[in-house]
Fold:
Amino acid sequence: MQTRQLGNSDMRITPLGIGAWAIGGSGWFGSMGPQNESESIPAIHAALDRGLNWIDTAALYGLGHSEEVVAEALKGRSPRPYVFTKCERVWNSQGRVGASLKAESIRKECEGSLRRLKTDVIDLYQIHWPEPDEEIEEGWTELARLKEEGKVRHIGVSNFSVAQMKRAQAIAPITSLQPPYSIVTREIENEILPYAESNNIGVIVYSPMSAGLLTGAMTRERVANFIAEDWRRNLPNFREPLLSRNLRLVEQLREIGKRHGRSPGEVAIAWTLDHPAVTAAIVGFRSPRQVGGIIGALEFRLSKGEMAEIETMLEDETAA
Structure:
């Protein structure tokens, strides 16, 4: 299985990793709706059995529930995959979510994640969002302390700007950055990806299929019938006028995929992995069936001609 070194760490990770956002289930802001653990755990097992060697979760997902599901799925697994999680998003007894990068909060969150994950050390501990901005230095200093103490092996950031990464780097090196990146979400290309590449910061992108939009299974009817708590219903890419454009793009990705027996989602993931700054992509699996429809992206790569073809169709859509 092909692996890539993640930034300045000693970890070599597969081009795809298991995203554990959706398996957090319902009942929290950011939910994709109800999720059955009788599907989640077999999905994780299926992905691991096909060679994926890392899982990305966060305390926020399901307000701790995703980490608990990951722990249950990994019970007795050998070899054990790398487990990445995140801090900074906190919640109260009513489930109301807030943000804190105070040292005391970070330490408490780390202990909570270690307990839920049933592990003695977290392979990669990440700041989920750079909020509050004025607390970045305090939070990053605490992550560096946790690394020195052996509670976490490596430390990274998510959703940081270049300026924010520079502030963190003045305190301790950044192993990785986790930003959103897809064919229809390209804001990081101009500054963030070049900066990460030039500073040996690994990049693990999230939403390479734009939260399911580019899988080939999304339809206008499905979007219209999203349940009230599905956070995607408010995303610009799932609303007009962008929705129609994006669904047309999916059909063009489908045509490229047919040449290779690949799904539109696998084409979309391969597009993100073509960027030299990108180490790997996070892909969410909610059932073993979904694993089967995406796992080909582990090895599938687009030709230069196909990359140019996608760029042309994006330009044509923009012009239209």
DSSP finds eleven helices and twelve strands in the chain.
